Amino acid sequence: MRKTNKKILVVLGHPDTNSLSGLFAEEYVSSARSAGKEVRYIKLGEIEFNPVLKHGYKQRQEHEPGLAHFWESIVWADHIAFFYPIWWGAMPALLKGALDRVLLPGKAFKYRESSQFWDRLLEGRSAHLFTTMDTPPWYYRMAYRMPGHNQMKRTILEFCGIKPVKIHSFGPVRYAKLDKIEKWVSTVRRYGSVT
């Protein structure tokens, strides 16, 4: 079990680095580095890779260099901070495709012989999801029951042993005024400095 959260991987899952998610990720990185943390920052939109796991788990699909670095950074990290928008209730296809490609059996998890259960191979890491959305977060929680949050937290990260997983939702962003965005940026900076 890891004792500190000094090595932080920041993952921008929005294809556009100039998005609000991109701004939040940059501020988090800056704050974490100022606090003396060792940080790796991966912008998935700048990596060349096929997001489709072509053969499922039946045939090995070699990682492109950017995905190999992404996987190695997950293994290296004590804590992973994800920044992405909620589109159609869940994460962008870019982020889902990257996770499909790197969180593989035998690496991120391992099914047990003659059992319905599995071993979580990424234990000892924590995560924090910073999501933006046009839907008010309370409505996303109450009306939709947070499908994207549940998918990322429970059926992806915790499935592989990454926990605790915290979630921070910012929204609605569509008509957010500058003072609101500045408050959100302050929140992100605070988490970057104390993680």
Automatic annotation (TrEMBL):
Q: Which SUPFAM superfamilies match?
A: Flavoproteins (SSF52218)
EC annotation?
1.-.-.-, 1.6.99.-
Write down the InterPro entries for this protein, in alphabetical order: Flavodoxin_fold (IPR003680), Flavoprotein-like_sf (IPR029039), NAD(P)H_dehydrogenase_qn (IPR051545)
Top-level class of the enzyme under EC nomenclature: oxidoreductase
Q: Does the keyword Membrane apply?
A: no
Q: Which terms in the Gene Ontology molecular function aspect does this entry carry?
A: oxidoreductase activity
- One matching Pfam family, short form? Flavodoxin_2
Give every Flavodoxin-like fold domain span: 6-177
Which UniProt keywords are given for this protein, alphabetically ordered?
Oxidoreductase
The Swiss-Prot or TrEMBL record describes its family as follows: Belongs to the NAD(P)H dehydrogenase (quinone) family.
Among PANTHER family, the record links this protein to: NAD P H OXIDOREDUCTASE-RELATED, NAD(P)H DEHYDROGENASE [QUINONE] 1 ISOFORM 1
From the Swiss-Prot or TrEMBL record, give the protein name: NAD(P)H-dependent oxidoreductase
Query: What is the species of this protein?
Result: Paraperlucidibaca wandonensis
